[in-house]
Amino acid sequence: MRWVLLVLFVLLAACGGGRAPTPQPRPQTDIRQCLMGLERAGVRYRSLPDRHFGGGCQATGSVQLLDVGVPVTNLTALTCPMAAGLADWSRTVRQIARERLGSDIAKIESFGSYACRPVNNQTGGRLSEHARANAADIAAFVLADGRRITVEHGWGGTDPRVRDFLRMAHRAGCRRFAIGLGPDSDRFHYNHFHFDMGRGPYCR
């Protein structure tokens, strides 16, 4: 009987008692290398303390972007790889805007980055990458000539140049992030691009 109990104990320990495995923190060397990459690219940022908010929500190894060449609104904590991808993406999007719309981008508007919530805010769903500071939602672009291009109205709008710009911006995000979602993905993304560094690749 004693050995049966021992075997049961080992099996339960191996499967964690039915609980999902705890995400492992990124090695400090990886974080340092990422931060050095931001500095080499001329990206200004502020390092943030590691924070755990309960329920799996956390912001570890994260930064707040201060300057990626243009202002990006509403960004708080971002993992360093997510921040690096966003900074690189913003440079490409500015070039696309100059080529397709004849104007540089003066500001990028986001719906935010960190948020402790499930996917698509659906109760009972799995935890969003936003809850790990590993995602950002992009809603609009303000051009230097005063025009404001929104995902909501521009994606299916009447101006072919705007439609092309937004689709190229979306594809550029898909090349840099594990997940890229836009208005063609589902009803939850009719008005923004969702980019994250979770499990992928997936682009829609």
TrEMBL record:
Give the InterPro entries listed for this entry: Extensin-like_C (IPR009683)
Q: Which UniProt keywords apply?
A: Signal
Q: Tell me the Pfam families matching this sequence.
A: Extensin-like_C
Q: Which domain of life is it from?
A: Bacteria
Q: Can you give the residue ranges of the Extensin-like C-terminal domain?
A: 33-204
Give a yes or no for keyword Nucleotide-binding in this entry: no
The residue range of the signal peptide is 1-20
What name is this protein filed under?
Extensin-like C-terminal domain-containing protein
| Naturally occurring in which organism (per UniProt) | Tardibacter chloracetimidivorans
